[in-house]
Design goal:
By secondary structure, the protein is an alpha/beta fold. It has helices at residues 12-23, 33-39, 70-74, 82-106, 123-132, 146-156; strands at residues 2-6, 28-32, 40-43, 46-49, 59-62, 111-114, 169-174, 177-182.
């Protein structure tokens, strides 16, 4: 079984991959980071999930995991003073971190398409690796200079922009409906 570790929202790439998995009738399960905490059960050294059998997993695709504000959203309604709120936040963050590490260790001997620690690799390095194995790489530019960007756009006409790291998501509301944009 393929285990997809993803985020619940703004994951168009994950959705497209799942469309293909369903087309090919592949056995998969998508576990969103926001669902992890509520679906994991640890009994002694056994880790179980309410929705899938971890022992059937043979391939893992780590796409993304949790939004940065996951814990703070979980405890947003807690009636606590700042000191206790901070203590609860740190405690839950650490609990989640260690539980996720344990979860990953349980899957260590399985085939990982991408590992969490590999997701922060600089995009220029990814391009270098892709080029070294013979993939056709479009001309690219990393710059903070507006004049260089303008020259690049004029030369290439059609460009795709990406953040060097993970992009920030910004939400605006149109007719009470959230619209996401990336930066």
């Amino acid at each position: 079984m393929i285990l997809i570790l993803s985020k619940e929202n703004d994951e168009i790439t994950t959705e497209k991959v799942i469309d293909w998995l369903e087309y090919f009738e592949a056995d998969y399960y998508r576990l969103n980071g926001s669902d992890f905490y509520n679906s994991v059960i640890q009994k002694g050294s056994n880790l179980q999930f309410t929705n899938f059998d971890i022992n059937k997993v043979n391939v893992i695709w780590f796409r993304r995991w949790l939004d940065d504000d996951y814990i703070s959203n979980k405890i947003a309604d807690a009636s606590l003073d700042n000191e206790n709120y901070t203590e609860l936040y740190l405690n839950l963050t650490n609990d989640l971190k260690y539980l996720v590490r344990y979860f990953h260790s349980k899957l260590a001997n399985r085939k990982w398409i991408s590992r969490p620690e590999e997701l922060t690799i600089y995009k220029a390095y990814q391009l270098e690796i892709a080029n070294s194995i013979g993939l056709n790489i479009p001309e690219s530019l990393t710059t903070s200079l507006k004049c260089e960007l303008k020259k690049f756009i004029l030369k290439n006409e059609r460009v795709i922009t990406k953040s060097i790291s993970n992009p920030a998501s910004f939400y605006s509301y149109v007719d009470n409906s959230p619209q996401v944009s990336m930066m």
